[in-house]
Amino acid sequence: NLEKLHFISSNMQGFDYSKYTEIREIKLERVINLTAVIFNGIPNKEKVRKLELVFCDVLDFDFSGFNALSLLRLSNITDLDETQFNSIPNKQGIEVLNLNGANTKGFDFSRFIRLKELILCDVEYFTAAQFNAIPNKSSIELLDLTSMNVAGFDFSGFTSLKKLDLEDVEGLTKDQFESIPNRNFIKKQISIG
């Protein structure tokens, strides 16, 4: 049975997921005609460990059945709303979260307790309150905040960082930078624009 389903620049019109009952990984990038009916028809969503949607229209997609995710990439998705995002179950199991280019207004990050990688480049409406509410920052090894306004972000809890990308950030103060733990250890891996 098929375990990985990857479509890039494909036309999904009429696609039927029903016969693919053992899917563990889904990657859909720049697909067209992917409707909520098609996406919501994915069987056994609880078996999917990796879900990547890139440059897709996700209006009315139901994410509530994906309760085994370890990787979630919703990249360059502008129509993802807070109800959809906040309905994702078992956030505590997600280790890699990539929201590159997403509108994060109202997103609740408080249940992501096992993150190892957090990519938030070019996200819109992301606040210092959201960033500072991320729990267990000490588990995060990769943090990408490219092109973000980081005013008010508290970096002091990120004790396990191995890579930090601050390229083209705005609002970074000297005090914030100096509060980054182990910054000398990760010095060669810090990118600052």
Order of helices and strands: EEHEEHEEHEEHE
Rounded mean pLDDT is 91
Residue share in β-strands: 15-25%
Alpha carbon gyration radius: 17 Å
For the largest beta-sheet, the strand count, sense and barrel status come to: 9 strands, parallel
Q: What percent of residues adopt helix (DSSP H or I)?
A: 10-25%
Contiguous uncertain segments of 5+ residues: none
Strand order of the largest sheet: 1-2-3-4-5-6-7-8-9
> Helices and strands: which structural class?
alpha/beta
Number of helices: 4
The N- and C-terminal alpha carbons lie at a distance of: 46 Å
DSSP strand count: 9
* Coarse shape: elongated
Structure description:
This protein has 193 residues and is an alpha/beta fold. The chain is built from four helices and nine strands; from the N terminus they run E-E-H-E-E-H-E-E-H-E-E-H-E. It has helices at 36-40, 82-86, 128-132, 174-178, and strands at residues 4-8, 25-29, 50-54, 71-75, 96-98, 117-119, 142-144, 163-166, 190-192. Strands 1-2-3-4-5-6-7-8-9 form a nine-stranded parallel sheet, with no helix packed on it. Strand 2, helix 1 (36-40) and strand 3 form a beta-alpha-beta unit. The chain is elongated, with a radius of gyration of 17 Å.
